[in-house]
Amino acid sequence: MSAESLGGRRARMERVTSESSVFVELDLDGTGQSEISTQVPFFDHMLTALSKHSLIDLTVRATGDVHIDVHHTVEDTAITLGEVLRTALGTKVGIRRFGTAYAPLDEALARAVVDISGRPYLVHGGEPAGQEYHLIGGHFTGSMTRHVFESLTFHAQICAHIEVLSGRDPHHIVEAQFKALARALREAVEVDSRMGDQIPSTKGAL
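Above: the chain sequence. Below: its structure as tokens.
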């Protein structure tokens, strides 16, 4: 199971295991259009926000053993999304590479800083005590938020620092993080006309 380039900055992948079946297709140069179905309504909401605010066109179709727990389906979707993102980025010629964004949602505020580095790393913090135990939307446990970011950054081979600066409502806390990540990704993957055919690294490769 590996992601397939569709030309340009588009890619897709189907990942099938005994626990889930996931299909993801994306276009980095889209307009934020999405078609999301994971059997986990709150996760659908977060992926829709990720697409909308990153301007990445995104199709996700996932089924799995959600009668046991949503963990497998959510994790495998994040893994697949990361693989597809990495493939769509290709050689990373001309991209801005770095992106920073703040996103508020009422009382919640999150910051995301992204480096399309070719090296997977996640720093995640600031969630209030007990956030990981909240069941959001009846299905999505708060602890899954970090796990999604871990799986995504590892498989996309990007570095992300995501921090909650304030927040009280569990839904708002998660959504602010996804929106901040989306906006940071939008900046980082954008093609910079001044870069030409350069790769934004002194190494000459990312």
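The longest strand covers residues 20-27.
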